[in-house]
Amino acid sequence: MNVSTKRLDIVAEARGLLSALGVGESAYAAGGMAAMSPVTGEKIAEVATTTAAGAARAIEEADSAFRKWRLVPAPKRGELVRLLGEELRAHKAELGRLVSIEAGKIPSEGLGEVQEMIDICDFAVGLSRQLYGLTIATERPGHRMMETWHPLGVIGVISAFNFPVAVWSWNAALALVCGNSVVWKPSEKTTLTALACQAIFERAVKRFGSDAPDGLLKVLIGDRAIGEVLVDHPKVPLVSATGSTRMGRDVGPRLAKRFARAILELGGNNAGIVTPSADLDMALRAIAFGAMGTAGQRCTTLRRLFVHDSVYDTLVPRLKKAYESVSVGSPLETSALVGPLIDKAAFDGMQKALKQAGTHGGKITGGSRVDAGHADAYYVKPALVEMPKQEGPVLEETFAPILYVMKYTDLDAAIADHNAVGAGLSSSIFTLDLQEAERFLSVDGSDCGIANVNIGTSGAEIGGAFGGEKETGGGRESGSDAWKAYMRRATNTVNYSKALPLAQGVSFDI
Ligand code: UN1
């Protein structure tokens, strides 16, 4: 099959999916921003962009929508998210496929991402009948003190290419049941899936009826300048931003300057520890998925591995074999487990890191480019690098499938090394020893937002709070009580007595 035939195929397929998902042609036919597919490296559409004035207008409209939406009772708001979940169920195959085309995910991961959206919708629907406050003991007789949660306003969402639809849904599903509107700036690399989500959402709104105001979801298509409009706008009290630590270093202070809130979900440099008692078959599978899955382009990807020297020579040769034999190829045309990198810059970044690792004494398995029949697409063999110690590129997140493997002898030292990087997102220990497992989860164990036992670092469920510490930014999205970040808290004290006792015994008799 020659490249031009493939080109026609993928463009036609993307258009067919967009139309099935309800996206009008004017949104992607002749706009100013190229939509590329990493699968073939070709342009599949030209998306209409938002101007700075248009972005500001969208935020104003979303603010008006918020003012009406907050008055709709929360369980009713949940009904809209329930309908969104239904639409996602009905269109899972199409949206999952579009994710594969635009982000290069293998089919089960493209579909898995949509499943993650459905799951968070279910979670948010239940939440819409909760949003619990507290009643707190008061020192004053005849008084009641309580805490209530109110909608916050327009929630800005900035998302990355690697989870182009799920990360939006984690934020949007919670924001909506909490009574907010959403303005979303997706990655420039994944605009088509964003347009698809908007169309799916609009269908849910239509089914919901007139209680849903216009402007509950606005999508801004553009580059960094458009993201800045969102970050700097006074009518956006919270921005939830997923991306690099470098992006977070810009966004965080800008928000702080105007006292807006931030949920930052930034880089990860996630590690695993394989102890002497580990179930090595299980560890092998978990490591392979964590490190090679999604072509190493999850923020939760396993990037560092500390292996006890008593099991190193058993596990590492098996791992290397898995690296050598893993199938790499087009997620649309083959059943490969590893799809493409997002673009040439990602490939260059990977090669640079591998070169640096070599200068630090790293022994590299894999890492070279794979010819998948598409000259402008970047497929690579995942790389396993045995490192003498943790230094150089091991300390940084390179958004590509590189796993640095190091030997350890003492668990305390391994945990210290584990924690000695900037990021603090996800972590795991593979052990059947209760003391080791508990030590890893304890106060002076893993310093990450996610710490697992006998599970890899990636693939978290939506029910838990998702996010990490240190340079990962500290934000939490998704499950548990992450919803609280999307609301404002009011402490209310009600006096139902006939007197006016002052707190702290203060007297002020006039
Ligand atoms: C991300 O890479 O930005 O835990 C999110 C996971 C997924 C989410 C990853 N549920 O790997």
TrEMBL record:
Which residues does UniProt mark as catalytic? Answer: E265
Record keywords, A-Z = NAD, Oxidoreductase
Specify the Aldehyde dehydrogenase domain's residue ranges: 33-489
Q: GO MF annotations for this entry?
A: aldehyde dehydrogenase (NAD+) activity
Q: Which SUPFAM superfamilies match?
A: ALDH-like
Report the EC code(s) recorded for this entry: 1.2.1.3
Name the PANTHER family for this protein.
Answer: ALPHA-AMINOADIPIC SEMIALDEHYDE DEHYDROGENASE (PTHR43521)
Q: How does it assemble?
A: Homotetramer.
Homology family: Belongs to the aldehyde dehydrogenase family.
Protein name listed in UniProt: aldehyde dehydrogenase (NAD(+))
Query: What is the taxonomic lineage of the source species?
Result: Bacteria, Pseudomonadati, Pseudomonadota, Alphaproteobacteria, Hyphomicrobiales
